[in-house]
Hints:
Elements: E1 9-15, H1 22-32, H2 41-46, H3 53-63, H4 70-86, E2 89-96, H5 98-103, H6 108-119, H7 122-126, E3 129-137, H8 141-152, E4 159-165, H9 177-185, E5 189-194, H10 200-210, E6 214-217, H11 225-233, E7 238-240, H12 242-247, H13 259-264, E8 269-271, H14 276-279, H15 283-294, H16 298-311, H17 316-331
Helix pairs in contact: 4-6, 8-9, 16-17
This protein binds adenine and zinc ion (ZN).
Amino acid sequence: MTSFVAPPSAELHIHIEGTIEPEHIVAMAARNGVTLPTTNIADLKARYAFEDLQSFLDLHYSNLTVLKTEQDFFELATGYLDRAKVAHVRRAEIFFDPQTHIANGTPLEVVMAGFNAAFSESDRTHGISTDLIMCFLRDLGADAAGEMLTAIMPFRDAIIGVGLDSTEIGFPPELFVDVYARAAAEGLHLVAHAGEEGGPETVATALDVLHIERVDHGIRAMEDPALVARLRDERIPLTVCPLSNVALRTVDTMADHPLPTMLAERIVATISSDDPPYFGGYVDANYEAIQRDLGLSDDQLKTLALNSFDAAFISPEQRAGWKAEVEAHFAG
Ligand code: ADE
Ligand code: ZN
């Protein structure tokens, strides 16, 4: 049996904070004097079993209290790059949640300096092109999102877009119309989590009122045939995270995942890992799982990898170069 080799891809749905490994959490807690419910790695890992999105978010935010210094943010970012390189990621459009760190007492300058030290050199150090997308935490509300957009303006050139994450139910897209309009006026790209736990109407609303260019997750869009047709016809990409969807129980098992239907409907579906240590693996593990558990063919995996570059915020030259690498991977 030959071992699986993941194709070159763009990872478009990755929360940098969600890449923190249990070993980082324990080491940073010790060096920063942060008290956690447990600092035993086995005990910590035993908690990585979730009922739903909120049960994950509660643990995720608790673990993030260990991040304090520029070095912590640099190590977090470098840890992701090291692993993404192994997973054959060529391009990463990386979410970060500055409101979390500011609430934990870390100045935005410290966060941005740590990320900048890792990501501004990522082409050279890891062969991975990177950009940052700043997410608003939807459960902190619209006013806080507006203040965050104002606060990031001194670092405007360090981000390419804005996103919307955290608790979906109860915090619909309509709340964020004004801040998204301001971000659009700044020339920022617009994406948002929608249709992860929320119904298809949240996806349609995010498209209609936030004018997003990509939908993060979007799997519940498949429940509405008119919306499926719209996503296909307007070529609006979905950043699908299969292992995340199983771990957070938005699908019962991988075999129930709507990805094959998305492909049959010719939706621009892409594959990403979301928060990989929590959900069972990085983007290579996601490709392997969908091949194994959904029986996807090489042609379908190739389509997903090609889609990832079509959906990325990159130049036509970059797109052509990386898509040629995908073709070569599957030809070889
Ligand atoms: N923050 C980190 N991962 C998330 C997810 N899957 N959905 C919403 N917010 C998140
Ligand atoms: Zn996500």
